[in-house]
Specification:
This protein has 650 residues and is an alpha+beta fold. 65% of the residues lie in helices and 7% in strands. β10 and β11 form a beta hairpin.
């Protein structure tokens, strides 16, 4: 852990960008060399392609148990790239410097990134000798740091909260990419996870969208709209409150908005990879060559490793394209699509084969929304139930349609402008891109609206989040096309209205996070607890198994923060996260309860020894029966907050 205002923090920040240049850009630029793209597109596409390859080599060498080959991989890539650079003296950097950036696009990306960073940047920051976490979902933030730490040490990774249990039913490629940088370049864990990589991915959100806009040749104004909706897109729930006479308030959280983009790192990484993948898809459709097609397959096929829901969107789109090419008898174009499918299966199955499927929930999503207490519309649901019980199906479906309309209008808000298309506006995008995107939107909508997961339950809302973000392409297209058709005076009025309707949610989330930061609200790990964690990390064996007495550490019950701060294997921590990922914890729960509550000290000690538990980490306010018996345990560390018991072997 390093102070955010220290020189070492910023030196490591510089090292991070040097590392991304070496590990991401150089291999990616080598892969792109045949395409002869402009310098800016090479820089953006090459960096993200290289990031995907970086993840692939991490998986391959990790499973082979030969992680040292990463250094060989980097050396070979660097030698080849340097040789080409010196021989041909490419002008990529001169070309980038010679072109003046569009200031409006630049400001939009910078301001959008700063807003996004406000919500995540201050996670794991040393502040007044305390470790401070704010904002977003703290439990998820802690888990991502713990998971990245596990991948640094071992691949495939163990669950941070359950030693010797391999991570399953979770997409961890964003953690893998970060962990490989930490492992190879010796970067600091927390800063790389929540300061360095968040800035990188937020900026590349705008840059990758800009490259896509350039490749579809729709010009600056389409790019402005697309980047605006990605960074500032919001809902209209606040407008529903106003219509109900409850004023303009934000009492119900949005499904997704631009400010929350970085709150879910897997999704954030997946969207950037997706935009680069679809950019390569545009190039492949134009060039129709195997090399570009395979690059596209590599990138879009790997999206599922970053976020399953984004990956499914990509696979549905590629599947629809496959049917299109079959109908056209263009069999040569099927090869990259098959390769993308094979890559996705190879990435998905080893980790997620037991994740479970979907089950039909009818109209539960819309009914659940309408009974939110803040809306005060429960009477509508009661009326719907009465009509259903009396088999008045016309009125029943009438109410369901009302619920559906209110939900879609409120949650998707101005993004619904993307539905206002004509044949002419759609023709501005290549037909294959429309097939790819529209098929993904339709299937994701069906899955998100009417199904839940066997493992994960209501997590199917992520399908709708994919539509909310990726659908920005069509929202931008509609604004670009229709506003361009009207008189300039009215066009400016339309622009202002759309911005005023779209931005309030993002500004509200930014203001809320800023207020929390100024008030120092959030999760704090005290200096006394940091001392105890430091003892475990520095004074105990690296393989020593630790049991956390969750009764004194509520946060560790939901997310295994002791895992990465002590850097020791945990017997059972972060039960909430484990259960949400479908991991069976009941046997270890039984063992923990047996140790913590057993009135037979001998039996509790036998349980400790049989499970190879070496230390018990607990609040100083709590006491175990076994503490009365020095032959079983002894206190090796103690302060006003924490005590650590060492199990005595005999």
């Amino acid at each position: 852990m390093i102070l955010i205002f220290s020189i070492s923090f910023w030196l490591y920040f510089l090292l991070f960008f040097i590392a991304t240049f070496i590990a991401f850009f150089i291999p990616g630029d080598l892969a792109l060399r045949k395409l002869k793209l402009p310098a800016f597109q090479r820089l953006v596409l090459g960096t993200v392609i290289g990031m995907v390859i970086w993840g692939l080599q991490g998986v391959l060498f990790g499973y082979l148990g030969l992680r040292w080959l990463t250094y060989v991989y980097l050396l070979i890539a660097f030698v080849f790239w340097a040789n080409l650079f010196l021989r041909h003296k490419p002008s990529i950097f001169k070309e980038i410097r010679s072109k003046k950036p569009d200031m409006l696009l630049l400001v939009l990306i910078v301001v959008g990134s700063l807003i996004q960073l406000t919500i995540v940047w201050f996670n794991g920051v040393l502040y007044s000798n305390e470790l401070y976490f704010c904002c977003g979902n703290t439990s998820d933030n802690l888990f991502h740091i713990a998971l990245t730490n596990q991948i640094v040490k071992h691949f495939p990774p163990f669950q941070p909260g359950m030693s010797e249990v391999i991570v399953k039913n979770y997409h961890y490629w964003s953690n893998l990419v970060i962990a490989e940088l930490i492992r190879v370049f010796h970067l600091p864990l927390i800063a790389t996870q929540y300061q360095y990589s968040t800035l990188f991915i937020s900026i590349f959100l705008g840059l990758s969208a800009l490259v896509f806009s350039q490749l579809v040749k729709l010009g600056k104004f389409f790019a402005l709209w697309l980047i605006f909706f990605l960074y500032f897109g919001g809902d209209l729930i606040y407008l529903l409150f106003f219509a109900l006479g409850k004023g303009l308030n934000f009492n119900i959280s949005s499904l997704e908005d631009g400010a929350k983009f970085l709150v879910n790192p897997p999704r954030a990484f997946s969207i950037v990879v997706f935009f680069v993948g679809i950019s390569l898809l545009v190039l492949w459709i134009r060039k129709r060559d195997l090399h570009t097609g395979l690059l596209m397959a590599l990138v879009l096929g790997s999206v599922i490793g970053f976020k399953v829901y984004s990956g499914i969107f990509a696979l549905i789109g590629l599947g629809a394209l496959g049917l299109y090419f079959l109908a056209k008898r263009n069999f040569r174009m099927l090869v990259p699509l098959i390769v993308a499918l094979v890559i996705s299966l190879a990435v998905y199955l080893p980790v997620n084969s037991n994740a479970g499927g979907l089950y039909f929930t009818r109209f539960w999503l819309f009914e659940n929304f309408i009974v939110q207490k803040a809306l005060g519309l429960k009477r509508l649901e009661l009326a719907r139930v009465i009509f259903e019980e009396h088999h008045n199906w016309i009125r029943f479906f009438q109410y369901e349609l009302i619920f559906f309309s209110l939900y879609v209008f409120s949650v998707f808000g101005p993004k619904l402008l993307g539905l206002v298309q004509s044949r002419k506006s759609l023709s501005l995008l290549p037909r294959e891109i429309n097939i790819f995107l529209i098929s993904g939107i339709i299937v994701s909508a069906a899955a998100g609206f009417f199904f839940q997961q066997t493992s994960g339950g209501a997590n199917t809302f992520n399908f709708l989040v994919s539509i909310f973000i990726i659908g920005s392409i069509y929202t931008a297209l509609a604004c670009y096309y229709w506003i361009g058709k009207i008189d300039k005076r009215f066009a400016w009025i339309a622009v202002v209205i759309i911005i005023l309707l779209t931005a309030p949610r993002v500004l509200y989330e930014w203001q809320t996070s800023t207020t929390r930061l100024l008030k120092h609200e959030g999760f704090v790990i005290s200096n006394l607890e940091l001392q105890s964690l430091n003892y475990l990390r520095e004074k105990t064996d690296k393989t020593a198994l630790v049991l956390v007495d969750y009764r004194g550490f509520d946060k560790d019950f939901y997310s295994p923060y002791v895992s990465f701060l002590a850097d020791r294997p945990m017997f059972l921590s972060g039960k909430g996260i484990l259960e949400s990922h479908g991991i069976e914890t009941s046997e270890r729960e039984r063992v923990v309860d047996d140790i913590l509550t057993n009135k037979d000290a001998v039996a509790a000690n036998n349980t400790l020894l049989s499970n190879n538990i070496k230390y018990i980490y607990m609040s100083d306010e709590d006491t175990l029966l076994i503490e009365k018996y020095p032959r079983f345990v002894k206190i090796v560390f103690r302060n006003k907050d924490v005590k650590i018991l060492k199990v005595v072997s005999y």
